[in-house]
Amino acid sequence: MKKILFVTLLPISIFALCDSNAQKLVNSYNSIKECKDNYIIFNNGKKILYDDGKNKDFNTLLNYADIEDMFKFRYPKEFRYKMPKNYDPGRVRNQEFFKTIYGNSANEVKKNLTYIKWIDGKNILVTKKEGVARALRGVVNDLKKLPPSYRKYLSPIGGTFKWRKIAGTNRLSVHSFGAAIDINVKYSAYWRWNKAKGFENKIPKEIVQIFEKHGFIWGGKWYHYDSMHFEYRPELLK
User: Contact, 214 vs 136, CB < 8 A?
Assistant: First the structure.
């Protein structure tokens, strides 16, 4: 008589384990302790769900992103013009993540702001958290090595810290956390301004590459482009 072997299959969540992108966050931000059991765990003890396991359309991604969703689109290392429709690497953000790192309110963020000298010698205000000010000083040092003809794209700046929502949304801008900078608006293109003309860019690749070297991504690599905009997102450049 043949024996029948019964195997009990235990339910295993495919979202139980942290992936390589979660490790990039751990390696990029000092305030993160680890990723464990599908949670990003911060040094202050706070835990945020990493992957909610939900499939999302583009608008849902923008408005209800979990942390894992921030890696939805690969940030291209190469200098590219015009991305595929809705391909916005870095524009998908989990707001709770950034608030935990940089501050829950304007007043909390302000406690960690500092001035650094921009390329024109004027002081600009950015956060000290996560080495953002240090990274931007590195950007300034390298920008100064470019020929003088590049200065017009960089100064005057469009802005750094300002606690505000992104135009047309209820989502906070990364400028709210002192971790972004807009360079000279005069030579910039923004998708909301340029709907009739479509994508265009005047920012030289040498400037973009310097920012990327120091951990800042460029809004010119978004389908919804913002070519004046750079924000500190080192996890997307690893």
Answer: yes
Q: What is the pLDDT along the chain (238 residues), one digit of tens a residue?
A: 444 444 444 444 445 579 999 999 999 999 999 999 999 999 999 999 999 999 999 999 999 999 999 999 999 988 866 789 999 999 999 999 999 999 999 999 999 999 999 999 999 999 999 999 999 999 999 999 999 999 999 999 999 999 999 988 999 999 999 999 999 999 999 998 876 677 889 999 999 999 999 999 999 999 999 999 999 999 999 9
**Using CA atoms in the order 194, 200, 202, 205, what is the torsion angle rounded to 10 degrees?**
130
CB contact set of 125 (below 8 Å; sequence gap of 6+): 113, 114, 115, 160, 161, 178
CATH assignment at residue 89:
3.30.1380
Start-to-end C-alpha separation, the chain: 59
Residue 60 lies in a domain: no
Q: CA 32 to CA 170: how far, in whole Å?
A: 26
Count of domains for the chain:
1
Domain range for 220 is 75-237
